[in-house]
Amino acid sequence: MMRSPGSWLGALLAILFVATGAIAQMAPGERAPELSGPPQEMGETEAKPIPKWVVDDARKERAYPDQPPIIPHSIEGYQLSVNTNRCLSCHKRELTQESGAPMISVTHYMTREGQMLADVSPRRYFCTACHVPQADVRPLVGNTFRDMSEMGVKQAGSE
Ligand code: HEC
Ligand code: HEC
């Protein structure tokens, strides 16, 4: 069976495409940093001690307006399950006067369609999916983050 020159060219291009993809994957470029040290088959590795959390109760500045604020207090032993939410025992609206804790944000009472609810929205129930305590440790991965207010934005009310 004869093939047209067009189909040969197509096949050649396809091979070339797959081959360059494979080579690109093998290239020793930047690799993800090792998080767990060298692999040790079947061996036991001593776990490093968990760093101490910053628990000075001082609410930290957010890096951008809708950053989930970090937790400035200890949450050790706080139960957070389907039936019990220790965080809400201080942070829900009805209990903040007593606890002195900031109320969960108004967004936490909204469904994803923007409908307001009387209680925390299920998508905001598991607080530690977004809010985490902070430890003063060397970052595993460097970053070049810059606060957006330093990027030449004229701040409202700054004159
Ligand atoms: C005993 C009451 C109490 C409990 C329980 C509690 N908090 Fe708090 N939380 C506070 C208070 C009070 C503050 C204000 C800062 C401070 O005093 O530490 C605060 C501050 C925070 C902040 C910082 C808010 C901001 O704007 O900077 C976050 C986030 C937070 N808590 C999340 C949690 C999460 C998540 C849990 C559950 C794992 C939790 N809290 C459990 C009382 C509580
Ligand atoms: C899906 C992510 C997510 C979950 C889950 C979540 N939060 Fe938040 N939270 C945020 C974000 C983002 C903000 C800041 C922007 C905003 O207000 O929505 C915030 C803001 C807050 C604030 C600051 C409110 C203020 O007015 O300063 C508190 C306190 C808080 N959350 C507590 C909680 C608690 C307690 C829970 C669990 C019941 C919880 N959050 C669950 C993302 C989340």
Query: What is the third-level CATH name, the topology of the domain at 76-132?
Result: Flavocytochrome C3, Chain A, domain 2
Strand segment count: 0
Poorly predicted regions: none
Rounded Rg: 26 Å
Ligands: heme C
Please tell me the overall pLDDT: 85
Instruction: Identify the CATH architecture of the domain at 76-132.
Output: Orthogonal Bundle
Spell the H/E element sequence. HHH
| The CATH top-level class label of the domain at 76-132 | Mainly Alpha
Work out the helicity level. 10-25%
Number of helical regions: 3
Intertermini distance: 81 Å
Question: Structural class, from secondary structure content?
Answer: mainly alpha
CATH level-4 homologous superfamily of the domain at 76-132: Flavocytochrome C3, Chain A
* CA-based shape: extended
Query: Could you give a short account of the major beta sheet?
Result: none
Strand content: under 5%
Key terms:
159 residues; mainly alpha; Flavocytochrome C3, Chain A, domain 2; 0% strand
Task: Write a compact overview of the structure shown.
This protein is mostly helical and 159 residues long. The protein has a domain at 76-132: Orthogonal Bundle (Flavocytochrome C3, Chain A, domain 2). The chain contains three helices and no strands.
Task: Tell me what you see in this structure.
- The chain is mainly α and 159 residues long.
- It has a domain at 76-132: Flavocytochrome C3, Chain A (Flavocytochrome C3, Chain A, domain 2).
- Helix content is 19%, strand content 0%.
- It has helices at residues 5-26, 88-91, 96-99.
- The protein starts with a helix and ends in a 60-residue tail after the last helix.
- The mean pLDDT is 85.
- Bound molecules: heme C (2 copies).
- One heme C binds next to helix 2.
